[in-house]
Target: LysR family transcriptional regulator (Chromosome initiation inhibitor)
Amino acid sequence: MIDYPAARAVALVVQTGSFEKAAAALNVTPSAVSQRVKQLEERLGAVLVERGIPCTATEKGEWLCRHMDHVSLLERELTAHLPGLVDPTAPVPRVTLAIAANADSLGTWFLAAAAAFTQGCDHLLNIVIDDQDHTADWLRRGRVLAAVTSLEKPIQGCRVTALGALRYHATASPDFMARHFPGGVTADALAQAPALTFNQKDRLQHDWIRRTLGRDIVLPTHWLPSTQGFVDGALAGMGWGMNPAQLVRGHLEAGRLVELVPGAILDVPLFWQVSRLAADQLADLSRRVVATAKRELVPPP
Amino acid sequence: MIDYPAARAVALVVQTGSFEKAAAALNVTPSAVSQRVKQLEERLGAVLVERGIPCTATEKGEWLCRHMDHVSLLERELTAHLPGLVDPTAPVPRVTLAIAANADSLGTWFLAAAAAFTQGCDHLLNIVIDDQDHTADWLRRGRVLAAVTSLEKPIQGCRVTALGALRYHATASPDFMARHFPGGVTADALAQAPALTFNQKDRLQHDWIRRTLGRDIVLPTHWLPSTQGFVDGALAGMGWGMNPAQLVRGHLEAGRLVELVPGAILDVPLFWQVSRLAADQLADLSRRVVATAKRELVPPP
Model:
């Protein structure tokens, strides 16, 4: 059996960033918290908390924290049926639900659904951002309970719902187009014109080129891991990049941005995968995610 | 002596994400690239490239890639003085400069300076985002050549310039205020009302509370690692958080957001630190960063 008081101490140190604050939340002394954490670390033979300002979880510590989040969620459900289980005078710990979304979904439609969900309950959300091709890994490793992902195939132990597709336009400023594509968007020009790439996981620019020109091109690129930064960078003439339709519609209409190849869109189908363990507790979130996606995304290609 | 052709192959595999694309860029066969990378890995006794889709750098591989970026930058300067050194018919490799900035600077003022710099030269930028208290670490470890940081003390081997301060307002929606702070922004109410926290490194909400109420409070919080997400989350009534003045000015004027405590601002002083090794090559970027900061930031407190 896991030493739950010690595990809760680890989770609180990580959540609050310090042993002192965790102690205040538990209403014990900092040295009591320190002792609980240390004992658990000695039993495991592994460091769980990286001492620093703030204190953070090691990789093993992260696993324990996620476990504690999931256990809290299950406890909540249980105590609704067996209220006698808990001391009615003790404060009920708030549940933090870890979910993963891609940055472009968060920057366009996802947050509206998440915010609406938080207003209907007192759960807290830990929103993890990763590439749509990689959020499924977070779910697979049990680090999150649900994810917006490009993966259609259900992850083991998960339910999947199709959300529609996020539409992208390859965009740049008119000035950038004049400077780098005076003779049109050719393979030679693309091999010279700086692109914007979110990070190493971002294949959207390459996917668009392959679909539009039918071949691969090694792109010179700026690295800019920010959804809004992509739009701002394109507006400022820094590079061209794939931007979600929602964020560039106004700029395209006003002529501040133009499409590299008019009408050459890229639609990225997205799916909502939820751990079966948490599907009931996340039913309201799932409903809101699906409804918002239906309004904001396009039908899948 | 480092095996530079092999090191360059590693850098290109990481940059393009695949052995095939690196081979195309080097005009050799993929198996030649694979052999160069493997030989270097064997000599080092360490994996440099994580084979996958895309191929990415391991931590040791990252070090090598940064080294290659820095060497390219120095080569550029040298060949300006000794043009005979390089084969005039070979394409000149583009230089990628790694620089670090905090997300809120990127989301408000920094990108304008970066974009202006890229238009005056053909260098590419690799913009790394981290908390303003942690960007200095990237510089210290030689992973970037320059950084926007809250650290005033010069890092070894770096020049430092004061930029001014980024002003923050503690903001929430009027609806959120009515729901969570009907009796005012008290310590008890703050211990119940969900805050927004960027990530574990983000101490701004705590700093603001300490300065405003003179004490520490353990905050229930949503985790939301996105500058624009913070504004959107506040607007949607998800939580309260510290938002840069530039991003909420319009919302405050229109009453879509309100300050938790009117006039209780938090100014975060920022500094530009540049590696002396690259100070000359980055002189134009430094000039633009300082000029933009002067326009957009407030005088330090």
Observations:
- The mean pLDDT of chain A is 92.
